[in-house]
Structure formats: structure tokens, C-alpha cells
Specification:
Structural class of chain A: alpha+beta
Low-confidence stretches of chain A: none
Strand content of chain B: 15-25%
Radius of gyration of chain A: 28 Å
CATH class of the largest domain in chain B: Alpha Beta
Number of strands of chain A: 5
Helix content of chain A: 40-55%
Number of domains of chain B: 2
Largest sheet of chain B: 5 strands, antiparallel
Largest sheet of chain A: 5 strands, antiparallel
Largest interface: A-B, 47 and 51 residues
Shape of chain B: rod-shaped
Oligomer: heterodimer
Number of helices of chain B: 6
Mean pLDDT of chain A: 92
Number of strands of chain B: 5
Radius of gyration of chain B: 55 Å
Order of helices and strands of chain A: HHEHHHEEEE
Helix content of chain B: 55-70%
Distance between the termini of chain A: 95 Å
Number of helices of chain A: 5
Structural class of chain B: alpha+beta
Amino acid sequence: MVRTLRKNALLVTALLLALVAAIGATGATFSWYDASHDETADFAKARDDALAAARQGVQNLNTLDHADFDAGMDLWLDSTTGDLHEQLEEGRDAFAEQVGQAESVTTAEVVSAAVTELDERAGRAGVIVAVRITVTLPDEEPDTKTSRMLGELTRTSEGWKISGLDQAPVG
Amino acid sequence: MSMTRHLVNRRRRLASRTDTAPPPRQEDPKKPRRPEPDRNDKKDRDKKDRDDKARAKAQRAERKRERKAAGERTGRSRLLLPAILGLVAVLLGGYALWASAKADSLKDDPALRNTALSDTAATSEVIGTVSDAINSLFSYDYASPEDTDAAAEEWLTGEAVEQHETLLAPVREVGEEERMVLTTTVTHAGVEILEGDRARLLIYADQTSARADDESETLHGPAVLTVEAVHRDGTWLIAGIDTYGG
């Protein structure tokens, strides 16, 4: 009798443990599903992705060394899409000549950026990016100024890319 | 004891031995059921009893062996089920821990803590409040310089008090003498971070400084500032201003 009880107790304990584990597993699965299908999370991720792309893209588009024009320009093209991309491609030769003559070296540092609009479904975002740009010309002191950029981003198969970039108008 | 009775009894015994059916009812209830057996008959019975005992003993031993083997089998199968259930419990438990860790890491994503833009109401509220604050904090009229002080009193907290004072000192210094009017208008604002009661905004503003006595001295200038805001007593206050040397 005692032996039977002990065997049953073992079975009941194992059954209870398995049951508790099953309940835990079910709860954790729901929790995981909820967390990974959270629309707010998708939106927040799209926002952060767009912001990161905007920061990197604006920095790329304000960085160019006349001595390494092709590599710089390839990066410009890689950071852009749409109309802006086409404009850059079309103006590449003229721009190369211009930069070559000026012998300019331009570097950029993004100081602050924020997403102002985001249409996650359409894959479009508006950003503002403040960037400190330093232009160095031969025989001249480097000139640094803060630029106020307004950017538009479009989501592509390779991620967010800049499809429009302008300076914020003054006055 | 008559011979006939003896024969009858013997026949009856033999019948009961060969088949296991109960002995036929006694026709005469007065007759004793089991008559005294004779000596020969007893000898036979003793031998049979011995045989029966040996056979029963062998059977008992056989049954015992069978029980023992069966017991081992059921003992093993009784342990097998708890073992399988235990394994299932361990696997499910491990999975549950892994899945809830996954869920927690997804929920704990810094991207989710930042509700800039995703919380549209709070985002437009902080943009509106901070824009109003910046407009009045960086505007100055020589005719009523106390308005700027009142704005500072209303909107600033912490480090921002001193930062604002430093930024406005040049204007205050010459303001009344030059009859200066400084107007600041926020043109673009974006929320970089919005986490509960704290926020960071990037702001573009246009500034116009004019001299009441000389219109040719009117200046337009672009301004960029990053503002740290804190939510306190139902409104947003400015706790930090960075103008990037501008």
C-alpha cells in the first residue's frame, strides 16, 4: 500500500510539474507573440531605423574629399534613392570637375536629428538633421558652420534612403 | 455395513474424483453424507493428497515466479511514465523561460521606451508647449523687458535658468539703449526622445532683431537648438538648452 502511494505520488508530481510547465509555456508563447506582433513596436523600430539612416545619410552627403571623389560619390549614390539619386547621378561629372578645381575637403558631423513625420505603411519619413559641416580649401582656414537640414526618406529593399534633402529656409 | 452400500460409496467417490462436479444429492437425507471409508480407500486418498500437495506447491512457486516477473515489469512501467512527464516538464519549462526572455527583451527594447511620434498626442503636446516656451524665452522688447523675465520664471528649471541668462545677456545689455526688439519663431521641431516625463527636441527657429530707431539694422538669423524638457505639475518645462555655440 505504501509502495503504491509512493509510486502514485511520483506520477502525480510529474503530472503536476508537466502541467505547470505547459501553462507556463503557453503563457510565454502568448506573451512572445504579443511582443513580436506589437504595431507600436514596429512603428518605433521603423522610426529608429529611419532616424539612423537619416543621420548616416546626411553625414555621407556632406562628406567629400576631392582626392577621393569617386569613393565619396559612390557613397552619396548609395545613401540616396528616387529623384535625389537621379540628380546626383546626372550631375556627377560636372560636380567632379567643380570639386577638383576647388580642391575642397568637406567633413560633416551630425549634432542632432529627429523624425518629424513617419508613414510606416507608405515607407516615407520626414526628418530634421542639424549637421556641423567643415569645409577646408587649400591655403585657407577650415570653415565650420551648422546647417539645418530638412530631409525626406523612402524605404527601399535595402532599407531607408534619402530621397530629398534641403536646407531649412531662413526668414 | 452392507456390501452394496460400500460399492455405492466407492462409485460416488470415483465419480467425484474424475469430474469436479459436486456429488449428486443424497437420495435419502437420513443417510450420512460421508460414510466411514475403508482402509484401502484411505491409502489411495493419502497418496493422492501427497500428489496434490506437491502439485500445489509447484504451482505456487510458478505463480510466485510469474508474479515476481510481472512485478518487475509493472514497476518499470510505473517509473517510465513519471520519467516521460518529467522530461516533458523540463522541456516545456525550458521553452517557457526562453520564450518569456524573448518577450521581455522585445518589450524592453529602447525603441519602445521612446514614444516619440508613436504617442502622437504626447508628441504634439510637447512640441507645442516647448515651441511656445522658446518663442517667448528668446523674444525681447526694450519697452517691456520684464516679459522675458516672466517667461524665464514660467518655463525654466535647473541648468536652463543659467543657460538662458547667458544666452540673453548680450541682448539685455544693449537692449534698452539700442531700443532692440528680438523676435524668435520656431519653424521646425522634432522630438528625438520622449520617455515618460522627459523629452529631447531638436528645434529650428528664425530670429529677427530690429532696432526701433533704425530699420536698416534689422537682422534675420537661423537658430538651431536642442532642448531637454521635463514634465512637471501637468506641463512641460525646459531643463536644458544647447545652441551649439550659435
